[in-house]
Design a protein that fits this description.
The protein is of the alpha/beta class. The protein has 18 helices and 17 strands. A seven-stranded mixed sheet has the order 4-10-9-8-7-5-6, with helices on both faces. Strands 1-2 form a two-stranded antiparallel sheet. Strands 3-15 form a two-stranded parallel ribbon. Strand 5, helix 9 and strand 6 form a beta-alpha-beta unit. It binds pyridoxal-5'-phosphate (PLP). The site of pyridoxal-5'-phosphate has 12 residues, from helix 8.
Length: about 575
């Protein structure tokens, strides 16, 4: 079998699997995994299917041991949960799991351009990865269309006096201003990992520009969830049997991945919930309800999603609290001076978004937090729109709580995270009661576990937590800084082109933005534009984006909102903009 596949052709995994299948087909007596759609475009081949395709050849090469045990190892490689291992596989029901150090989870793994799903490396897998890596090539350097390519830099790279601000250039690294860079990953190879991007909509290739609503899932996440149900499924924490250990191991492994991803100090600070909405409700209905009293004040920003407004309004109505709002300027930037004026002895909580879902504004989160703490208030940061676009470090931010949804960071729906400082979480009484969160129950009283268990009553979304862990692995492998840089470049590119569409008005023109391009187009209702784009296979959101107050601040009830992720391309943006030009004709 030759592995000298022409690097110029950049074969994808399915092509490689096909090649392997053809080869094995030619061997006498081999059992073949044939493609059901012979002669037609091949469906993507799962990577573990690829391993199976290679298997006979691997035997030949002596790379795979015939006595290889096909029973799956657990996610973090031991087959026993960290908790079970620490307790000789006899989980102590009075003190189950969560905070044991698991050596299998320590430290990030080296980046691989090809990932085999979730097994620890067998010797043959290491070899196979080498083979697959050899056929992966990076794309030719793409020059950022900055000052060499354009007459004028983009308006939002300038500060308010019209002076170019080097900090706003794509990688925020002044030393690289104006230099061409190569994207550090090949967007076409990355796209191969997302099967849904091969869908056609209305006869056209799908162009997914609705990433602020939800992101698409790489095959690695899809496979990981499927693997969980095939090999690990059990309830967690409560039994000493093998599958309970595997499931617990996988679930707690995911918690550790989240911890590392946002740089929390401990896994005990990571609570799994349904999503950002439930996360904010948890803080509103536990700590806030327990600690705020009539007359106390909560500050939110004008940029907030309804999820970070309504729970505070509900609480304010119940307890007689006052809600104050940080205003924004005409670009959609937080007015820090005005914010400082709102702070006072009655301020008990500041809750704000790190990135606006409607405008894309990146808020000065560290400064907002610092000022709140100086006033003695606690801080909740809504990271629903930030974690997929920029490096988040909760310790550097010093947030008391930080929340996000898994589905916006390439993970499954129905899973999200509350990060909270450990001492604060342990001082707070749970908001829901039930199994899993107690250490002792009589009919007279209940003793709760410490965090995170005290906030995870009942059976949680185990499989999707594990899927979120796989999504975090995926993002980490590409590198969140690389993602941030590439998306910033796309945002600059798209903004420049959109500005040239006659009659367009961009809503949200802050210098520091992520992902989102909100606009209205004279002569068209936003839903008409959404429908016209849909006809061409382009998915964008048109509406109020669950952020009515900020849209009304700009005098509109709705906008069209393309939003970018790292798998989007310049070609997709070109298509979007061409259609808008066509509409105007
Ligand atoms: N916060 C922001 C900024 C959002 O954009 C969203 C969803 O769009 C949410 C909170 C709510 O997230 P979820 O619906 O996943 O709970």
């Amino acid at each position: 079998m030759s592995t000298n596949i022409n690097a110029e052709e950049q074969p994808d995994l399915s092509a490689l699997a096909n090649l392997a299948n053809q080869f094995f087909k030619a061997l006498p007596g081999q059992q073949i995994k044939t493609d059901p759609v012979v002669g037609q475009a091949h469906e993507p081949v799962r990577q573990d299917a690829l391993v199976e395709s290679y298997e006979p050849w691997l035997y030949d090469q002596g790379l795979r041991n015939n006595s290889f045990d096909h029973s799956p190892p657990s996610a973090s490689g031991v087959g026993v949960s960290p908790s079970a291992a620490n307790q000789n596989n006899a989980v102590d029901l009075r003190n189950p799991q969560t905070s044991f150090a698991d050596p299998n989870l320590a430290g990030p793994k080296p980046a691989d351009s090809v990932q085999l799903p979730f097994q620890e490396d067998e010797p043959f897998e290491t070899r196979l990865k080498e083979i697959l890596n050899n056929v992966r090539v990076s794309s030719p350097a793409v020059r950022i269309p900055f000052d060499q390519d354009t007459d004028a830099p983009y308006y939002f790279l300038k500060n308010r006096n019209g002076v170019l601000n080097p900090k706003n250039i794509f990688d925020r690294d002044a030393s690289r201003v104006g230099q061409p860079i190569a994207p550090p990953f090949d967007v076409n190879l990355v796209r191969n990992d997302f099967p849904i991007l091969r869908e056609r909509v209305n006869g056209r290739p799908l162009i997914w520009l609705d990433n602020a609503a939800t992101t698409q899932k790489p095959q690695q996440v899809i496979d990981r969830i499927s693997y969980f149900y095939q090999h690990e499924n059990s309830n967690i924490h409560r039994a000493a049997h093998q599958l309970a250990a595997r499931a617990t191991d996988a679930y707690e492994g995911a918690r550790e991945k989240v911890r590392a991803f946002i740089n929390a100090a401990s896994v005990n600070e990571i609570i799994f919930v349904r999503g950002a909405t439930e996360a904010i409700n948890l803080v509103a209905k536990s700590w806030s309800e327990q600690n705020l009293n009539a007359g106390d004040e909560i500050i939110v920003s004008h940029l907030e999603h309804h999820a970070n407004i309504v729970p505070w309004q509900q609480l304010a109505a119940k307890k007689g609290l006052k809600i104050k709002v940080i205003p924004v300027d005409d670009d959609g930037q937080i007015l820090l001076d005005e914010y400082a004026k709102l702070l006072g002895p009655k301020t008990k909580l500041v809750a704000f978004t790190q990135v606006s879902n409607a405008l894309g504004t990146v808020t000065p989160a560290s400064r907002i937090t610092e000022l709140a703490h100086q006033a003695g208030a606690k801080v909740l940061i809504d990271g629903a729109q930030s974690v997929s676009h920029m490096k988040v470090d909760v310790r550097a931010l010093d947030a008391d709580w930080f929340v996000f949804s898994g589905h916006k960071v390439f993970g499954p729906t129905g899973i999200g995270v509350v990060y909270g400082k450990e001492a604060l979480l342990n001082e707070t009484q749970p908001w829901q009661g039930g199994g899993n969160m107690i250490s002792d129950v009589t009919f007279e009283y209940t003793q709760y576990h410490k965090a995170p268990s005290r906030f995870e009553a009942g059976t949680g979304n185990i499989a999707d937590a594990v899927g979120l862990g796989a999504a975090i692995d995926y993002v980490s492998r590409i590198g969140i800084e690389n993602i941030s840089r590439y998306e910033h470049y796309l945002l600059i590119y798209a903004t420049r082109l959109l500005k040239e569409v006659p009659g367009i008005r961009l809503i949200g023109t802050a210098p520091d933005k992520a992902s989102v391009l909100s606009f209205v187009l004279a002569g068209y209702k936003t839903e008409e534009i959404g429908a016209a784009l849909n006809k061409e296979g382009i998915a964008v959101r048109s509406g109020h984006h669950c952020a009515q107050p900020i849209l009304r601040r700009f005098g509109v009830e709705s906008t069209v909102r393309p939003s970018l992720a790292f798998y989007n391309t310049r070609a997709e943006i070109d298509t979007l903009v061409n259609i808008l030009h066509r509409l105007k004709k």
